[in-house]
Sequence to fold (208 residues):
Amino acid sequence: MADVTWPLELRHGPIGLRPLRARDAAEWNAVRQRNLTWLRRWDATQPPSGHRSPQSFRSMAREMDRQARQGRMLPFVVTYSEASDRSKRPIVGQLTVSGITYGSAGWASMGYWVDQGYAGRGIIPTAVAMAADYCWFQLGLHRIEVAIRPENTASLRVVEKLGFRYEGQRPRYLHIDGDWRDHQVFALNAEEVPQGLMARLKTSGFIP
Fold:
């Protein structure tokens, strides 16, 4: 297992990843409320057989922080600074690396969302690239996996842009928006991107 470095911040230009914190509750809830229709179809939900009680935002943030300090996940918010005021870094989305497994598996899964008002600016592809590179080069993981609903065209564009390999469909894989939903699985292994995803984006001219 790699040495745990948490809290952790990653940044490229105006795009940043920083830990989700309990004190983010008001700002995070405002972003989510503003994007209720945009995000509802892709939100994880509790299956009827589930026994877990709903968590408050602060409880969720504290539990994620605990797992992050144990090296089991990387719960980031995504921030973006407008050119007119680089001192402000509002929350515009979320990116979570979960299921981090060391040893012979060496893998993790990644999920993300972005404020609709900031979609199409390359924020999430850059955030995914930064997080994936950290997992490969700092944590020593071998595989990054992303599972996406077939109808989620915006998320599919992200993995296509980054060159993730399609591995197939998993029927009724996750409980999303009130039911078990099929997901398409995409993955990249470290040796497929020896220079990293940020280098791939720069080479493609997608980011400076």
Observations:
- The longest strand covers residues 165-176.
- The chain has a mean pLDDT of 93.
- The longest helix spans residues 123-137.
